[in-house]
Amino acid sequence: xxxxxxxxxxxxxxxxxxxxxxxxxxxxxxxxxxxxxxxxxxxxxxxxxxxxxxxxxxxxxxxxxxxxxxxxxxxxxxxxxxxxxxxxxxxxxxxxxxxxxxxxxxxxxxxxxxxxxxxxxxxxxxxxxxxxxxxxxxxxxxxxxxxxxxxxxxxxxxxxxxxxxxxxxxxxxxxxxxxxxxxxxxxxxxxxxxxxxxxxxxxxxxxxxxxxxxxxxxxxxxxx
Length: 224
Known about the structure:
Blueprint: E1 5-8, H1 19-27, E2 31-38, H2 44-57, E3 61-64, H3 76-83, E4 87-92, H4 95-102, H5 106-116, E5 120-124, H6 126-131, E6 132-133, E7 135-136, E8 143-144, E9 150-151, E10 153-157, H7 164-173, E11 179-183, E12 187-191, E13 198-201, E14 206-209, E15 212-214
Parallel strand pairs: 1-5, 2-3, 2-4, 4-5, 6-9, 10-11
Antiparallel strand pairs: 1-12, 7-8, 11-14, 12-13, 14-15
Helix pairs in contact: 3-5
């Protein structure tokens, strides 16, 4: 049975991210496995501390895995932790670094298998970006290759911090078969096997398709 998947716009582990509690309840998780890989060079301890406090307030433990470089994605202890996880959270600032660490590794295979076996998979900020394909290059708003768990979708994390001009450029550069989703901070789209994605959190999700304005129903399903 495939687990839920959630793409979060950023500013995770803060007031307004009530979808975390909902997903914990749905999957019955007692522990969250955190992969702070995207902030390997930007004080990942800060994210780990925030996540520890946040999930403690929700009644679950946090297990942060030190997956910061590609060799860590081959480490047996990290593979075992991901394989047995019921809820996995990918976070950080650099989707490019996350892709370089995860792509074509045993850890990514373990992540994918855990998800297909019912674990909940969440990505926030760079984590949401890299889970898609294509992914948005945060440096300029163009596109590059992502990990492909959610193909045919590209997200703009922290879209509330982008200028209208930058958003418009990213939307205009999208391939005709790709749906672009503006994801504000503390806002998520969630797919749990029902008919379509749903939005959660404090912000407004905006969906763009080649034909113009679109809705959550136009976002392709994850690659189960």
